[in-house]
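Appendix B. Worked example

We walk through a single record from start to finish. Start with the input: the chain for 3-phosphoshikimate 1-carboxyvinyltransferase, Natronorubrum texcoconense, length 432.
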Amino acid sequence: MNVSITPSRVEGSARAPPSKSYTHRAILAAGYGDHAAVRDALWSADTQATARAVDLFGGDVQRREDGTLEIGGFDGRPDVPADVIDCDNSGTTMRLVTAAAALADGTSVLTGDESLRTRPQGPLLEALGDLGTEAFSTRGNGQAPLVVTGPLSGSTVSIPGDVSSQYITALLMAGAVTDEGIDVVLETDLKSAPYVDITLEVLADFGVDARKTDDGFAVDGGQSYRPVGGEYAVPGDFSSISYPLAAGAIAGADGGAVRIEGANPSAQGDTAIVDIVDRMGADVEWDREAGTIDVSSAPLSGIEVDVEDTPDLLPTIATLGAVAEGDTHITNAEHVRFKETDRVSAMAEELGKMGVETTEERDSLTVHGDDSDLVGATVSGRRDHRIIMSLALAGLVADGETTVEGADHVDVSFPGFFAMLEDLGASLDRAA
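Next comes the structure step. The output line below is what the pipeline stores for this chain.
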């Protein structure tokens, strides 16, 4: 699907979709247990991949009419899957499920789409090998397809912290049901640390004790996954909130505002987007108790933003920088190159088609607002949901029509994204 956007003014209310990060963890946590209901879950292409894996491990995921997921778990010991585990485009699924597969007394095979088969899994495979499993890439390059033969035994293991925090999450979640537990020692500084905070929060809500240590993280073995009352509710997603928030900041109607509902505080590092938009000059008010954010447009100015802990915000910030006066300098961004696509280069190249001047370095992206003349163009979504949504935002204020190719990939995290833009007043057209 291609989507064409013409310049538009937006106002009204938008509800944040549930958090993808929390939903992944909650589905798998329920799978590790006996039974749990996961309310307010995001049912997207990515999270469905995690649900399918739980099914293949011997669990059972059923979605009720109200969207609640009723999950019968595999009680800490997954079956050997009867089929290859297809993680589709979900890096979170692949990493978390690879560690779960290591608990099975047999061999599991994991793969994904073309994009996912380029993403690094080597450090996790090495860590699982150190913990007594056989885990390898079929191509010998640390990338999927992966073959994992368990069972996993707990112990101390070291792993780099600057490639993906999901490795640590995977080991902690699996370690809780081993006999010995797992002590994760970080070989390097941890990038994207708030995502491990999310993991610790979800584990605690499921009755599992995991903790930070002087040199990493640890989880005791012999634990059970049991949420209080047998239920868990997923909070709103601040990565997704960044899009209506940025839309209101750059394209808000004169005298109007965009109100975002479901913006309750949580451990998500991407709550930083509220402060970023405020620092750039938009009028932002966050009522944390009510879980609402009101944003109105105003002239924006470029700032410096460190995305070490918030890599998913880079595409949104780049679009804000294309509209702002002066330079927007996005730093500590090297790990953003290892997402669904190289998001640093993708945003530089696609915004470049729209007349935006950028300077790209290995670990940074600078957007030169003063040297840019944002014009409509045909741009590629790169099969990356965050690239698609960020380019669509640029189309709201570009001179002329902007067409985003491959826009259906928003289904990965925000299936209702374009419907939300239309509800806020955006003028757009969908074409197969």
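Two observations about the output. Residues 2-17+236-431 form a domain with the UDP-n-acetylglucosamine1-carboxyvinyl-transferase; Chain fold (CATH 3.65.10.10). The chain has two domains: 2-17+236-431, 20-233.
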